[in-house]
Fold this protein.
Amino acid sequence: MTSKQRMRLALALTAAGALSVALLSPAAAGADSARPECPRSLACDWVPAAYQQTGDPEDKDTYGNYDTANRPDSNAVKFIVLHDTEVDYDTTLKIFQNPANQTSAHYVVRSADGHVTQMVKNKDVAWQAGNWYLNTHSIGIEQEGVAAEGATWYTSEMYRSTARLVRYLAAKYDIPLDRQHILGHDGV
């Protein structure tokens, strides 16, 4: 697909209420057409979180919404942190695509069908746990849901996809499948 075709498709999708041009334009995504790091049996896509300079233009080190890294070489991945979004799936993606929000997670799992969207490469550090040490040593997974509304959000499809993703990540990074290494955000 040519860049002109990508742009037309992106504009058509945007007009239909889908996500922005940045999702289909390699230039807008930092020439990043990454494949999601998911098990083959799982429906996944790649929608990059924002990574662009924010704040003072003189400060060349101020970027949002995550830090580039070379994990596991720079920091061993030792934990998986599970969150709930407290907003819907589409809003979560938009929040992570706005660098002014200074937040992200590696993955977002949709409630209705368990679809997984990766937003930060596993080698990079997502700003998800609210704890720098844990951010640098973990993979963050956001599950679509509002805790106060309970069971209507937390579906079997979402749990199955999350379990597949956790099992895959735990095997890849040699993370024990226990409560000391698979954490809920409330345990951070």
Notes: The CA atoms of residues 114 and 160 lie 7 Å apart. The radius of gyration is 16 Å. Residues 1-31 have pLDDT under 50 and may be disordered.
